[in-house]
Model the fold of this input.
Amino acid sequence: FVAEFSRGKSELINAIFFADYGRRIMPASAGRTTMCPTELSYEAGSAPSLRLLPIETRLKPQGLAEWRLKQNACEEVWLDIEDAQQMAQSLAKVSEVRTVTIDEARALGFWQDGMPDGNPLQDAKGNVEVPMWRHALINVPHPLLMQGLVILDTPGLNAVGAEPELTINLIPQAHAVVFILGADTGVT
Done:
């Protein structure tokens, strides 16, 4: 699912995959949105879980594909698929941010000196918020996912540029790309 920031990607995931819970499971409300590329899939033989790759891995030369193979590089949160509250609290982690200096943001790839319009807003101390996580993998036994469907929820078009492997590897391999438009804005 690809769209600009806050256009309903996570809300669509909630409607398709988590409607039976009777509440939002993926963060999808004002101020709480997906901050890192998030994959939903089902891995047979593995317990339901959320695996989170720390943003600091962007400071190392390995690509996203290599990091995904290193299980010990991720923080893992077990999911109780019978407990909507626990699921929502656990999956809220994909919306976590941390505050860093401009130099740290630049090193992580979130600050471009030549493109000030695309930079995050500075706080009173001159710091900015960046995502806490580089990538998230959610493993849940949903009937569509159990058939092999994999959903990639992007935090917005800027994430596609910030993680080139999404554009170069994952998106071209997709059988379908769902581009979501805001009804009030259309194509911008």
